[in-house]
Amino acid sequence: MTPDDRHLLGLALEVCPGFAPGEVVYRSRTSLVVGGLLDGVEALAKVRTPDWRRQCLREIDTYDLFDAVAPPVPVPRRFASDKERAVLVMERLAGEVLAPDRFPVTPVAREDLDGVLAAVERLRHWHPALAEGWSVDYRGMLEGVHAQGVFDEAHWASLLRLLELSGTPREFGHGDLVLANVVRSRGRQVLIDWASSALYLPCLDLAQLWMLLGDVPGARARIEVAVAERADERDGMMPFLVNLTLLLYRERRAHQRFTDDASRARAVRLDAAWELTRHRVRQCLATAG
Q1: CA-CA distance, 167 to 147, in Å (whole number)?
Q2: Could you give the CA distance from residue 89 to residue 148 in angstroms, rounded to a whole number?
Q3: What's the pLDDT tens digit per position in 117-143?
């Protein structure tokens, strides 16, 4: 371990003295994750680096919600946490993630995708009591993107109208539903890493899955069905397109830093998805009258 790793692990041991650390499972500029045992049970200690403390606070707040109102989806158990030290100690699941890559290129088992979509559907009907600060500021985010010169005036006006029709954020969402954040464990799809959870416009998690699973055969078609099955467009296609626009903007911008061939090819497909979404925004408004 590096000196920084030892410092972060020391914070975890202050919070959970009974944790017996083993191997480093993951380290990055945002966090250190160490596997080990707690009273003979497999556990993980996650410690955020100082600049990423906010994400730990949100994940701990989410676990507080889970304690107050049982979550509608399987999640790892929390053993200990501390906001001041940005530490979360939780159950280590037996199993494997559905896909290790952000953009999977191999098929996803039908039962796994079914399980993820079912989890999204259950989660949107979960309504815990939330304090201020959980709702996402969509108008502010769109204005930030507009300030970058991304939208022409027609596109900007269409998005503002679609946002108005979509209403206010009202669905609790995971917020970072990459398949690496879903563990297949004991026949269930368990959602992990709740650091981006919030109150979103409907279909945020579906929009992210649509964007990320473009190379997975049949995935986008099944997600489109899940969106279309929502009885009111204000809970379905309208907010889906608002969410997808923001997600694609962020992903296309991130891909500007990448120079490898695979990322460049993916950037072309993301550009195509952006143009398709732009067209669908206009089409959706025309249909809505």
Answers
A1: 23
A2: 40
A3: 999 999 999 999 998 899 999 999 999
Residue bearing tokens 């005036």:
153
- State whether the Cα torsion 76-65-73-237 is positive or negative: negative
Domain CATH for 81: 3.30.200.20
The answer to whether 189 and 98 are in contact (CB under 8 A) is: yes
Q: What is the pTM of this model?
A: 0.95
Q: Are 236 and 230 in contact (CB under 8 A)?
A: yes
User: Residues 280-289: what's their mean pLDDT?
Assistant: 89
Domain range for residue 114?
Answer: 97-288
Domain count, the chain: 2
Q: How confident is the model at residue 105 (pLDDT cuts 50, 70, 90)?
A: confident
Q: Distance (Å, rounded) from C-alpha 22 to C-alpha 267?
A: 39
Condensed to tens digits (0 to 9), the pLDDT of residues 50-82 reads 888 888 999 999 999 999 999 999 999 999 999
**CA dist., res. 39 & res. 271, Å (int):** 50
**81 lies in the same domain as 203:** no
Residue 135 is given by DSSP the state: B
SS3 190: strand
Percent of all residues in the chain with a pLDDT value above 70, rounded to a whole number: 100
Q: What would the two tokens of residue 269 be? A: 């497909």
Q: Of 174, 182, 176, 191, nearest to 108 (Cα)?
A: 182
Same-domain check for residues 75 and 102? no
φ, ψ dihedrals at 50, nearest 5°: -55, -40
